[in-house]
């Protein structure tokens, strides 16, 4: 999970690739340490080659991103948005999938980071056996009932579609439920 970091002044002078670079967000424990890194990086850039306009490089710019949801990216993130991003990066993989599901379900990042524990998430391959197993988890006595009565049928596809949302994360299919 990476950001391409530069600053607006370097961008305006055409030197964004001289002082800009990819930063691996997994190297930071929190948003504060990431911001300290950026401040230090741009102070060194100013010492190496001051801007022609005479100002310091103080307006950070993030021109690209990799391996995290679009909803967490902005060209000019606030400190709060950076905190949220680093918090997301430091989650376990399953929890990142839950947050991504909530973001796609219309939650803002603060709400998604607060409520992801409430999401039921299950890898899903769509086989009939898997649908049956999931149905059995929810209704353990239903199969016995259908064996006793010829008129009871179970629509597993309808059960899945009415109770879960199918979504993709990192090439995997999941069923999610809030």
Structure explained in plain terms:
This protein is α+β, with helices and mostly antiparallel strands. The chain folds into two domains: 2-90, no CATH class; 92-178, no CATH class. It is built from nine helices and six strands. The strands form two sheets. A three-stranded antiparallel beta sheet has the order 2-1-3. It has a three-stranded antiparallel beta sheet with strand order 4-6-5. A hairpin with a 2-residue loop joins strand 5 (165-169) and strand 6 (172-177). The radius of gyration is 24 Å and the shape is rod-shaped. The model has no long low-confidence stretch (mean pLDDT 86).
Question: What is the structure about, briefly put?
Answer:
The chain is α+β, with helices and mostly antiparallel strands and 178 residues long. The chain has helices spanning 8-13, 16-19, 31-48, 79-89, 93-104, 109-115, 128-138, 142-148, 156-163; strands at residues 2-7, 21-24, 60-66, 120-123, 165-169, 172-177. It folds into two domains: 2-90, no CATH class; 92-178, no CATH class.
